[in-house]
Amino acid sequence: MTFIMENMNTPQKENAEDLKGLYDLAIPLSMPVTVIREIVENFELDLIRRPGKMEMTGEVMDREILVLRGDLETVKAAEKYMFEALDKKLASWSSHEKEDKYKKYYDEQAAARIKELKENPEASKSWDLTATQ
What we know:
This protein has 133 residues and is of the alpha+beta class. The protein has three helices and four strands, in the order ββαββαα.
């Protein structure tokens, strides 16, 4: 599925001559900001807000959408990169790497508190047990 649009129906304030040879890559809703930032940093494209029609919940509504604007070759390369980066991001979200890291940290902290309590039963009186949330 391609999201590349030639700039034919652009707002009146943009001069059609200035847009000749430029293409827009519509950024899908819910694209992680980190992926968008990577694309802007790695490709010579302009990040533009553009009016568009979207169908959500069965209703068509006018919305501003984000697009990356540039020459066709760069836009196509950015599109490929965007979906590869999204796949990597989704894979990292489904991995248990962070969960395992924080579980290990929690277990270490709990073991240290248990050890401290065994060595000094009065130590718990100085612990800050206030809720953080």
